[in-house]
Design brief:
QueA-like, 2 domains, 17 strands
Amino acid sequence: MKLSQFKFKFPEELIATEPTPVRDEARMMVVHKSTGEIEHRIFKEIINYFDDGDVMVFNDTKVFPAKLIGNKEKTGAKIEVFLLRELNEEHKLWDVLVEPARKIRIGNKLYFGDDESMVAEVIDNTTSRGRTLRFLYDGPHEEFKEALYKLGMTPLPPYIKRESLPSDAEDYQCIFAAKEGAVVAPAAGLHFSRELLKRLEIKGVKDAYLTLHSGLGNYRDIDVEDLTKHRMDSEDMVVTQELVDIVNAAKDENRNVCAVGTSVLRGIESAVSMGGHMKTYAGWTNKFIFPPYDFTVANAMVSNFHLPYSTMLMMVCAFGGYDLVMYAYDEAIKEKYRFGAYGDAMLIVD
């Protein structure tokens, strides 16, 4: 497949800039792989497509307030800092992106907060935009993290052209989020309310969790036409024995296994063993999935509607079939489905 095959005419007004008022009342397009049938539903009706013993796999990563606004020493220039990951707890070193990068050099100090009480020093240039910051803070680590996060804002996707609001801290977070480390929310999971999860549990649908800390690589432009030459950014993930046991038992009993989101699908495929089973895994994955691809574990998936050229769209096309998914996207545009992390959902089933 070529990059240009994932272009489609996309009206930008379909990008959702606010979430659906009630999580499980977003619209849901249901795509049947075997027949090509397309249904238009409400998300909470997803319960009708799964039965006792089926499994839904979620990503329990937790988004942290990664976006900071700082001021450069002497000039006072406004600098946007995006926290990516903590490199060293003892020395308070963080891997970050800065904008505008051209204004920042090694040795520069940045001041954060209205009182400029949080100070960081640039100690390394890792990429053209990337830097390593050392935060100059004397207190204990937990106190430092708390102070840092109070200054941070929710890292909304770049296609949502507005500033973060206090409400985004809750809206851009799955209700089951538990393991801190993501700067990109697993958007398909945003549709699940506590009531819907309870109804699924009562019906006998099992929930299982992996952790994959989604990073900014999800939004990085692909700059090669030949997709085999694209390299995904690595992301930290954990697949536990508990998840493996639940999924493998379901596979042995011919039950449905639904991957909730492209991050889950990627995580599952990074931990595949023989015969459509899973194995435990803890480490990094840079797996890039695009058509054609043979999935052996999940036979259903939930996804939001993704933007042209995105790696998430490519993964959905690999799962649902390129022609069918691109046709479904044409239908979504005609029917004015909402795109992006705060948008509507697609369920792909056999």
